[in-house]
Amino acid sequence: MSLYALLKRDLLIAFRNRGELFNPLMFFLMVASLFPLAVTPDPQFLGEIAPGIIWVGALLATLLSMDLMFKGDYEDGAIEQLLVSPSPTMLFVLVKVLVHFVVAGLPLTLMAPLLGLMLSLPESGFAPLMLSLLIGTPILSLLGAIGAALTVGLKKGGMLMPLLILPLYIPVLIFAASSVQAGVQGDPYIGHLAFLGAYLAMSLVVAPVAAAFALRISVSR
């Protein structure tokens, strides 16, 4: 199967299974909706903590669908066929990451301004919020591919995977939320986004290779 055919097939499957498509979005919305009820509805206070709420919600919502990245191909034997084919495994991983970003990361990014309004995020925070999500959510998908590949053959891999990849997510969470907070306070936020861009570049180089090796280990055991 060509990489284009794989991309097209995975996107069709994702959009047909609308329940799996909307689960991360609904979780993202629920986190932002319930948080004011648990803390305080005061707009000023919510505006101050909105960057952290939105980014924690995006991170946890992304984790919901991460376990399914390679699961279907592992169960039907497609990964085994791929590993013996001449196509580089890391390109297969990149296709899977792209599909996950389109299905999970991009909708979360587009939904973020609505949650920003709900949480009284100041206008100056919307630009860094959108930019940080556009740069940060692909990083979450790339790093998550490593954990998904390592646990694809385990019966309870969905419980183990967050423990493996959450430490890698911490720098993304810190610098992304800090960039939005800097924008809210009127401070320069380009430095925070530059770090995210560097982290994205490193993830693009390292994560597909690491996930490809992890898939070989998972299939061989």
From TrEMBL:
Entry keyword set: Cell inner membrane, Cell membrane, Cytochrome c-type biogenesis, Membrane, Transmembrane, Transmembrane helix, Transport
Localization per record: Cell inner membrane
GO molecular function: heme transmembrane transporter activity
Pfam annotation, one family: CcmB
Membrane-topology annotation of the record: Multi-pass membrane protein
Assigned GO CC terms: plasma membrane
Cross-referenced InterPro entries: Cyt_c_biogenesis_CcmB, Cyt_c_CcmB_bac
Transmembrane segments: 21-40, 52-70, 91-114, 126-152, 159-177, 189-215
Residue ranges that the Swiss-Prot or TrEMBL entry lists as coiled coil: none
One record GO biological process: cytochrome c biosynthetic process
Function, as annotated: Required for the export of heme to the periplasm for the biogenesis of c-type cytochromes.
Protein family: Belongs to the CcmB/CycW/HelB family.
Name listed for the protein in its UniProt record: Heme exporter protein B
